Amino acid sequence: MKKLVAEFIGTAVLVLFGCGAAVLGGAAIGQTGIAFAFGLAIVAMAYGIGPISGCHVNPAVSFGVFIAGRMPASEMLRYWLAQFAGALVGALILAIIAGSTANLGQNGWGPGYLGEYAMPAALIFEIVFTAIFVIVILGSTASAAPIGFAGLAIGLTLVAIHLVGIQVTGVSVNPARSFGPAILAGGKALSQLWLFIVAPLAGGALGALLYRFRTLEA
């Protein structure tokens, strides 16, 4: 239960910091500031709840950890429930603060959304960059990795991913992060949610398979 509470809190914090930066401070801090808000949220939670749950705060990461053989399926499913619930609560708190559900930092693609990239570009971005993210996570938390630096490596990787991809999809690489805002915003965000569940899970599996088959084992 402690692990599930930690995952719930961590995912809520990720949505509040990352999406909150986009919604409440986006005009002042710009895309670079938003990117760092997402990354710093992960750094904070990695050291805050990492010793309890591993700080997955992302169903794609939990799926990758499962594929890599580091977590049983039953525990992964419990993590998913906590993560999706935490993201929804984080989005709800953000909606209350913002006074609206129209803009909660929801992900998307196509005409009218940021860089107006097409669906194939969004799909490829989310698969490839989630794979990269999971590779960094599994590598930096491996037994051969330097102790104490995983949180920084993972958080800074998320910053870099956002710097590259905010204009493409707003950056998900995390089904829960997309789920919370989309459920409350509805409309186009909800109709496009499938991509931000399917693509990150596929990317997480691809990254994890490199560890499952010991391709990247130290």
UniProtKB/TrEMBL annotation:
<dbReference type="GO" id="GO:0015250">
    <property type="term" value="F:water channel activity"/>
</dbReference>
<dbReference type="GO" id="GO:0005886">
    <property type="term" value="C:plasma membrane"/>
</dbReference>
<feature type="transmembrane region" description="Helical">
    <location>
        <begin position="37"/>
        <end position="67"/>
    </location>
</feature>
<protein>
    <submittedName>
        <fullName>Porin</fullName>
    </submittedName>
</protein>
<dbReference type="InterPro" id="IPR034294">
    <property type="entry name" value="Aquaporin_transptr"/>
</dbReference>
<feature type="transmembrane region" description="Helical">
    <location>
        <begin position="79"/>
        <end position="97"/>
    </location>
</feature>
<keyword id="KW-0812">Transmembrane</keyword>
<keyword id="KW-1133">Transmembrane helix</keyword>
<keyword id="KW-0813">Transport</keyword>
<keyword id="KW-1003">Cell membrane</keyword>
<feature type="transmembrane region" description="Helical">
    <location>
        <begin position="150"/>
        <end position="173"/>
    </location>
</feature>
<feature type="transmembrane region" description="Helical">
    <location>
        <begin position="117"/>
        <end position="138"/>
    </location>
</feature>
<dbReference type="InterPro" id="IPR000425">
    <property type="entry name" value="MIP"/>
</dbReference>
<dbReference type="InterPro" id="IPR022357">
    <property type="entry name" value="MIP_CS"/>
</dbReference>
<comment type="similarity">
    <text>Belongs to the MIP/aquaporin (TC 1.A.8) family.</text>
</comment>
<dbReference type="InterPro" id="IPR023271">
    <property type="entry name" value="Aquaporin-like"/>
</dbReference>
<dbReference type="Pfam" id="PF00230">
    <property type="entry name" value="MIP"/>
</dbReference>
<feature type="transmembrane region" description="Helical">
    <location>
        <begin position="193"/>
        <end position="213"/>
    </location>
</feature>
<keyword id="KW-0472">Membrane</keyword>
